[in-house]
């Protein structure tokens, strides 16, 4: 397998080629193993490892995918500055054992490269073959991701129509289309029995659950709790990009979420009031709110009163870093 031979035994097998990944999964299945997949974009932290632990409890072998998916970034977003440290990730995975052990890492170079003959252009490879003269390659809606920018002719997208519209979908119009599509690709390549997603990305978890139900994937989708730093900040690969001052200010997100939960649990169930106090706490600390929403845990529709299971979801900017966090409340 590509890259696999030079790796010491205690490290997970590294697979970069999708056919090799399929072969590996088939071989595992032939030996009677069940497979769990943990999709990630790398720059791994303890939050990711907690998903691995969950995955280990659910299947015989665990695959972690590490792939920064251009399909979920619009050209104006932070694809090029998204943190990555593949060697560090492998070291981290190699240093864990027992319930956090990983069997294989799937690390494809480009999941949207279909081997179309390219010619060298100024900015690297320019693809030809699928595009007609004069075509922009961008969808008619004018909404595009970095995949359309790359060219290459990828044109099939999975959209979970209603669930993707609100919350992060409002300010990131191509995001969930990209997530649902790359998760579909990973499911088709790795063919897992179960896949574990963090509730940190609550809307993403619900969207993947809905997609799997609607399209009859035979894969169990499991949500895993948010892992936080000791001071409450939700762990995220993007946290390293926060200045020390912004990191301190960003604590207003988790603090205000905990406070809102305890207020709701002690009878302050009006969502308008809860929302106002959350917005105030974050803007007061110097953050810029993208959204604060209190929504039904399943439908992700806004609710007016906390009298059924809800989740408070927040996205806010601190400096040039956009953070998301949430808290479930079941009163
Ligand atoms: P990412 O690499 O950010 O795309 O995340 C990969 C997976 O890890 C997603 O399912 C995330 O929801 C999950 N994840 C990220 N941060 C955390 C966290 N702090 N706690 C639990 N899961 C997390």
TrEMBL record:
MF term (GO), any: ATP binding
Question: Which Pfam families does the annotation name?
Answer: Pantoate_ligase
Name the enzyme group at the top EC level.
Answer: ligase
User: Which pathway does the UniProt entry assign to this protein?
Assistant: Cofactor biosynthesis; (R)-pantothenate biosynthesis; (R)-pantothenate from (R)-pantoate and beta-alanine: step 1/1
The UniProt keywords, alphabetically, are: ATP-binding, Cytoplasm, Ligase, Nucleotide-binding, Pantothenate biosynthesis
Q: Where are the transmembrane segments?
A: none
What are the BP-aspect GO terms?
A: pantothenate biosynthetic process
Positions in coiled-coil regions: none
| Compartments it resides in | Cytoplasm
**What does UniProt give as GO cellular component?**
cytosol
Return the EC number.
6.3.2.1
Q: Which reaction does it catalyse?
A: (R)-pantoate + beta-alanine + ATP = (R)-pantothenate + AMP + diphosphate + H(+)
PANTHER family reported for this sequence: CYTIDYLATE KINASE/PANTOATE-BETA-ALANINE LIGASE, PANTOATE--BETA-ALANINE LIGASE
What family does the database annotate? Answer: Belongs to the pantothenate synthetase family.
Q: How does this chain assemble?
A: Homodimer.
Task: Note the NCBIfam families from the entry.
Answer: cyt_tran_rel (TIGR00125), panC (TIGR00018)
Q: What is this protein called?
A: Pantoate--beta-alanine ligase
The species this protein belongs to is Linum trigynum
